[in-house]
Amino acid sequence: MIRARPIPAYTATPTGTGDQGDVHSEMAPPVPVVSRRRYDFGLMSKVTAPGIRSRKGGPKIAVVTAYDFPGAVIADRAGIDMILVGDSVANVVHGMDTTLEIGLDEIVLHTRAVKRAKPNALVVADMPWLTFHLGEEDTVRNAGRLVREGGAEAVKLEGGRKRLPVIEAILDAEIPVMGHVGLTPQSVHAMGGFKVQGKVVDAAREMIEDAKALSDVGCFSIVIEGVPDILGELITKEVDAPTIGIGAGPSTDGQVLVFHDVLGLGDGNYPKFVRPYASLADEAVAALERFKADIQKGSFPGDDESYHVTDEIAAELLKDS
Length: 321
Ligand code: KIV
Hints:
The protein has helices at about 35-40, 50-55, 70-75, 90, 105-115, 135-150, 165-170, 190, 200-215, 230-240, 260, 280-295, 310-320; strands spanning about 60-65, 80-85, 120-125, 155, 175-180, 220-225, 245, 255. The protein is α/β, with parallel strands linked by helices. Strands 1-2-3-4-5-6-7-8 form an eight-stranded parallel barrel, surrounded by six helices. The two termini are about 20 Å apart. The structure holds 3-methyl-2-oxobutanoic acid (KIV). 3-methyl-2-oxobutanoic acid binds near residues 65, 86, 87 and 225.
């Protein structure tokens, strides 16, 4: 008989018609999706941009990138506050050298996948390079695609005061905006590489002014990336919007890390500010090695991992052989 298989927590509930041709038939009762169970008990409610804005000085905000459905389910099960569909997907998922190579269509696609997890976490989509540099109308159209086609609940864009006109235009279209100052990877060539920013007094003061302007114009939060800890602290004190640090020291209102870094899914070559909380790449390699060994030994699949017919049908079929 067809064996009832456990299904992963994030698998959509199968219809299970009992039809012998349906591999999902005779399944175990569907496993409840943990993130939805939280709704049932009313323990967590949907995180919103105004909700994040109101958390200045409150409980620290935990943010992680996610680029697909299972990543979003995992982040949401962990109670992460905000999921950023970052343009870091270029490096982490697509193996590109810089974030300059990823376009709007790809971010829309990844955002849609994240949104299918229906996370409690606020879903913020990154605006790729050149999608907010060609004027306000073009910028609003691009931000609108992330919301309408991707389902994003807010957008993030890199840059300080010179981006105020486009930020105002997006806000005017009722789309919440997250700012991003410091080491802005889309400026890699202008910065002369991925270098810690704000290490000299003038640059640090400029960055504080940039962050204040982003906060004052209405950004609901601001990412501060790759700056000395004291600058992370000063900006956090100076601005009303909650700051989310990455390589900006411990004083920001929240922290963000890339999903693959925090889970140890990379090659082990992590920047100084990353703390890998697991070694999933090593575990995945070991698991696949065991899988390969079992195939070669002939011990996979086993009897209970195979489909069967009744003894009568088996006997009939064997007569032919
Ligand atoms: O794209 C990204 O992942 C980011 C975070 C590092 C803030 O912008």
